[in-house]
Amino acid sequence: MEFGKQHIENLFSDLQDGRRLLDLLEGLTGQRLPKEKGSTRVHALNNVNKALQVLQKNNVDLVNIGSTDIVDGNHKLTLGLIWNIILHWQVKNVMKNIMAGLQQTNSEKILLSWVRQSTRNYPQVNVINFTTSWSDGLALNALIHSHRPDLFDWNSVVCQQSATQRLDHAFNIAKYHLGIEKLLDPE
């Protein structure tokens, strides 16, 4: 991932000082967001606080996410923050245009509906949520396969022994063929 000329090598440590997070928000909002250049914890907290304020002004859901969580490199809450940013600026806007006729207003329900639609031809897959439905690796592989069947043989994935193998397969396909970095460990 690249924001300007700065690369993200490690999502958790690279966002801790708040500067790259502010760079990202500058790109998404079109606003200039000054950053504190010092390297102390106070500077990092101020930068992350500024980023969280921008997100709140843009109605991004920040339940239980605080500046200390990001500065301390809390994996779960950092991923939650990034997911909420993606959900707000990518999924909501894209899905709003695609699904304008639907009465659903909850972005998660819309995304879940899209996943179900994409995986409907895979009888082994039943996506009912964004937690347990993904643990066996079949849903993620089916989602990739439904859009890029040329990348792998579906039956060979179904036959793999373990959920870990299937998840590892999906993450590797996503990384090497779709340019999506591996942020989670199948274990």
Which key terms come to mind for this protein?
2 domains, Actin-binding Protein, T-fimbrin, domain 1, globular, 56% helix, 187 residues, mainly alpha, 9 helices
Number of E-type strands: 2
Q: Helical amount among residues, as a percent range?
A: 55-70%
Topology-level CATH name of the largest domain: Actin-binding Protein, T-fimbrin, domain 1
Intertermini distance: 24 Å
Number of domains: 2
Q: Largest beta sheet: what is the strand line-up?
A: 1-2
Main pleated-sheet profile: 2 strands, antiparallel
| Total of helices | 9
The CATH homologous superfamily of the largest domain: Calponin-like domain
CATH architecture classification of the largest domain: Orthogonal Bundle
Measured on Cα atoms, how large is the radius of gyration?
A: 18 Å
Beta-strand percentage range = under 5%
CATH first level of the largest domain:
Mainly Alpha
Low-pLDDT windows of residues:
none
What integer is the average pLDDT?
88
Quaternary structure: single chain
InterPro entries: Actinin_actin-bd_CS, CH_dom, CH_dom_sf
GO molecular function: actin binding
Pfam families: CH
Keywords: Actin-binding, Repeat
Tell me what you see in this structure:
- Pfam families: CH.
- InterPro entries: Actinin_actin-bd_CS, CH_dom, CH_dom_sf.
- Helices cover 56% and strands 2% of the residues.
- The chain is mainly alpha-helical and 187 residues long.
- The protein has two domains: 1-98, Actin-binding Protein, T-fimbrin, domain 1 (Orthogonal Bundle), CATH 1.10.418.10; 103-187, Actin-binding Protein, T-fimbrin, domain 1, CATH 1.10.418.10.
- It has a two-stranded antiparallel ribbon with strand order 1-2.
- Helix 5 crosses helix 6 (107-118).
- It is globular.
- The mean pLDDT is 88.
